[in-house]
Automatic annotation (TrEMBL):
The lineage of its organism: Eukaryota, Viridiplantae, Streptophyta, Embryophyta, Tracheophyta. It comes from the Eukaryota. The keyword 4Fe-4S does not apply. ANK repeats lie at residues 82-114, 115-147, 150-179, 212-244. Pfam families: Ank, Ank_2, Ank_3. PANTHER family: ANKYRIN REPEAT FAMILY PROTEIN. This is Ankyrin-1-like isoform X1. Keywords: ANK repeat.
Amino acid sequence: MGSTSEIGASIIEAGASGDLNQLRAIRKKVGDDWEFRRICDQYTAFSTGWSVLHHAVEIGHFEMCRFLIKKVHVFVDPLTYKMDAPIAQAAKRGHVEIVKFLIEHGANVGLANIEGFTPLHYALLIGNMELMELLLRNRVFVDAQSVVGTPLQIALSRGNAEAVKSLLSHGANPNYFYSVEETPLGIAVNARSFECLKLLLEAKADPNAYFNGLSPLSAAAREPDTKFLKSLLAAKADPNLLREVTDDDLQDIFLPIEEAATVRNRAAMEILFPVTKRLAHYPNWTIDGIIEYVQTEEFLAKGAERVLRLLTKLDIRGMQYACNEDLYSAIVQYRAATILRPWNTKWLSKLSMWEARLDLKIPSLLGAQKCVRLMPDLPVPVQGEIDAAANVTFKKFLIAGLAFSLDPYNKDTDHSFRVCLFDYFVWLTQMRF
C-alpha cells in the first residue's frame, strides 16, 4: 500500500483525527501484524516526535488506545522529543480512564520529561484530584522535581489544601525544595493559604528552614493577616534568626520585624516587637522608631552594602569550591547569589554548567532558559584572531546539537550536547561581561 514512510504518515494522520476505522483498515492492508506494530512504534510526527499512541491519548480516544495496546501491542511508553510519554499526555489532558488503562498495561507512572514534569505534576497543575489520587495509589514518586517545583510546591502555590493533605499522607517531604528555592512553608504564606500552612506545621515542617532571602516568618511579617505570623511563632519560628551563609559574620539582610516595618505592617510589628532583640544601630528602638528608620537613606545604604558584601563573598567562595572541584558546594553559593541577583547571566551560566556536569538536569535547564530570556540577542561568534577559540566552542556546540537532534534518545549524544551547550553559554557571558 506504499512505502513504510507513507504507511507511517497514514497511521499518524488516523491517530490525530481519531479515525479508528481508518487505522484498522491500514492494519488490514499491511497484513503482517508484526510489521504494523513496528511501524506504529517507530514512526512519529516529524515536528513533535508524537507516536500514534500519543495522538490517541491526546484526544481522549479510549477505544483507539485499547486497540493499539491490546490488539496491536504497541510499546506503552514511547517518548516524544520533549520526553513526554503517553501517560503524561493523558494526565495533562485529564483523561483519567486512559491513565488508569495505561497503568494497568504497564505504563511507568514516574517518567519525567525534559522539564521534570511527571503525570503527578500535570494532575496538580490542572487540579484533577481524581487523577492525583489514582497516581498516588500507584506509588508515584511524590517529591519529583520539575522547573516549577515538586508536586507539593505546586499544590501549595495554588492553595489546594486537599491536595496538600493527600500528598503529605503519601510521604511528601514538608521541607524539601531545590529547583524552586522557596520552602513549602514560604509558598503557603505567599499563597495566603492558612489551611495549607497548618497542614505543613502539623507535618513537622521546619519554620526556620529557608535557603536565602525571606524566611517563612519574614514573609508572614509582610502579610496583613497576622494569623500566619502567630502560627509560625507558636511553632518556634525564630524572630531573631539571621542565618550565617559564610564562615565569617556575614549574614542575611533583614529581620522579620524590619520586613514588617518596610511595608508599615504595625499589627505584625506589635507581635514581633516583644520577642525581637534590639538592634544596636537603631537610634530609637520603638515600633514608630523602627518604621521611621527603615525609610531613611542610612537604612537603604546599609542594606545595599550588606547585599554587596554578601554577593562578593558568595562569588569568591563559589569559585574557590569550583577550583577544588567541589561543584555541589559551588552550586550552593551561586544559587544564593542568583536569588539576590537573578539577572546576572554570568553567574547563571556558571551555575547551569556545573549543574549539567553533575547531571542535575532540571535546575540546569532552568538556568539555561533564564540565560536565553535575559540575553535574547545572543551573539554568534565570527572568524577573527580574537574569536578563534570561541569558534571552536561554537562549532562543537553545533556538531553536538546536530548529533543530539538526529538521535535524541542516545545518552552519549545527550551528554555531549549538554556539556557543549553550557560551555557555549560560558563563552557568551564572558564576552558580554
